[in-house]
Amino acid sequence: MYVPKRIFFTKGVGKHKEYLASFESALRDAQIEKYNLVTVSSIFPTGCKRIPVERGLEELQPGQIVHCVMARNATNEPNRLIASSIGVARPTDKTMYGYLSEHHPYGQTGHAAGDYAEDLAASMLATTLGIDFNPDEAWNEKEQVFKMSQKIVQTFNITQSARGDKHGLWTTVLSAAILLP
Known about the structure:
arginine decarboxylase activity, four-stranded antiparallel beta sheet, Pyruvoyl-Dependent Histidine Decarboxylase, Chain B, alpha+beta, five-stranded mixed beta sheet
């Protein structure tokens, strides 16, 4: 059975006249262009340990199939604000899984996109844990409820934002959680 034991987070931005080359450039900026990335849904595995990007990259070989949760966005509209964000919510109970969320908005700052993704991951985890909360409240209000429940130990996000190239080149942003055996 394959259950990832380690995870690292990375992000990047790329620009190019071609859409695909812009994506490749963002992968290079995130240092994950050498791998065959397979996207998976958004569960933070039980017992999975976060490691630094550099340590995770040392374990990978070019061409290796690598599972990831990825958020990406692209535009060729000059000055259009784009973002990609991965939100993370981990439970206090180490025998329980957590959540990763992907968010890829237009017109949101990196901070707003990160807060939204973090809120989404924490809300998904909270419903799994049976925490009673008002889904219509602002993230900072819900965050307090989640922390006071003492059932959610950690939330964070990794977010990349950018403005579309002023000359109309494709601009791509990506955020990724890389899962390792």
